[in-house]
Design a protein that fits this description.
The chain has 2 domains: 169 residues, 3-Layer(aba) Sandwich (Rossmann fold), CATH 3.40.50; 65 residues, no CATH class. Helix 4 crosses helix 5. It is α/β, with parallel strands linked by helices and 240 residues long. The strands form 2 sheets. It has a 6-stranded parallel beta sheet, sandwiched between helices. A 3-stranded mixed beta sheet has the order 7-9-8. It is globular and about 50 Å long.
Length: 240
């Protein structure tokens, strides 16, 4: 089972939107998908409430919890509740418990998508430990860009401390990208330069401002795959 964690310590960057749509996309591709809402704001839980299972997200941080898939459904939600906030004050041993419980349930699901809170606490660290893949949505604005370095330090730090070097960082996913904004274009160029110097793999899908429509067209495509395993991808869309 692949476990994809949507993570960024900054709020309002599109984590929940990305998590929900990713889960729906995989379910429509006939995959058995588990969604875990670890954000006490419960936005993903509200959206996917019709798919809620019997196991709460907070229960998955307790030893021996087994999540059961919904019969006849491609999507199962482990919803958030208010007790999630207490987890950040619980025993540090709970950090690895989520990973252990997901391993128990791996025969029931093909993929797991985890929506994380906009803070770095026990919950977020536990999710990163459990992750096979991490994806970080960001906005191309000043405060969001400044937080990228801290985000990367967190991901790398968890990998090293908990022996999770096999976790794959899928990249930074800029959302609400305005192709007409010189500031956002400058931030994008800065990200490509800095991430490249760190040797990180970036897979970027830049979504134009506003909703997708039939008038969207591709205005720029660029891929660079050097001899190493580092790859860059840039896709810019515009509503005509």
């Amino acid at each position: 089972m692949k476990t994809i964690v949507i993570n960024n310590q900054k709020g309002g960057v599109g984590k929940t939107t990305l998590a929900v749509h990713l889960a729906w996309f995989m379910a429509e591709a006939d995959l058995r998908v588990l969604v875990i809402d670890v954000d006490a704001q419960s936005n993903a839980s509200d959206t996917l409430r019709d798919y809620a299972g019997s196991t709460l997200a907070a229960d998955l941080f307790k030893p021996g919890t087994r999540v059961v898939s919904r019969e006849g459904e491609g999507l199962t939600l482990a919803p958030a509740d208010s007790s999630l906030t207490d987890l950040d004050r619980s025993n540090a041993a709970a950090i690895t418990t989520l990973q252990e419980n997901l391993a128990i349930a791996s025969d029931q699901f093909d993929a797991c998508v985890i929506d994380t809170p906009p803070s770095l606490g026990l919950r977020s660290v536990g999710c990163l430990v459990a992750a096979s893949h991490v994806l970080a949505p960001i906005y191309l604005e000043d405060y969001s860009i400044k937080g990228v370095k801290g985000l990367m330090q967190t991901v790398i730090g968890v990998q090293r401390r908990y022996g999770r070097q096999d976790t794959k960082f899928l990249g930074l996913l800029p959302s609400n990208f305005n192709t007409k904004s010189p500031r956002q274009r400058s931030h994008l160029e800065q990200l490509l330069r800095e991430a490249g110097s760190e040797g990180l793999e970036i897979i970027m899908w830049l979504i134009m401002r506003g909703a997708m429509s039939e008038t969207v067209r591709l205005i720029h495509r660029f891929y660079h795959v050097p001899a190493s395993n580092t790859a860059y991808g840039l896709l810019v869309l515009e509503d005509t």
